Amino acid sequence: xxxxxxxxxxxxxxxxxxxxxxxxxxxxxxxxxxxxxxxxxxxxxxxxxxxxxxxxxxxxxxxxxxxx
Length: 68
Known about the structure:
alpha+beta, 3-stranded antiparallel β-sheet, 1 helix, 5 strands, globular
C-alpha cells in the first residue's frame, strides 16, 4: 500500500516461506518476483537509484527494503 511497484529478489529458484504467504505475495499485481537474483551493488547519489544485479542486469528503484 505504500509503493506502486515492488520487486522481490529471491536468491534461489523457490521461496522458503510458508505457502500461504507466498501465494498472497504472488497474487498481488504490484509485485514482480525475480528468482535466482542477487544484488551486486546499490547505486545512487543522494538516495538509492538503481541496483546492479549479479546477472548483469540493472534495476531502477527508488528505495530498498532488506529482509532475510
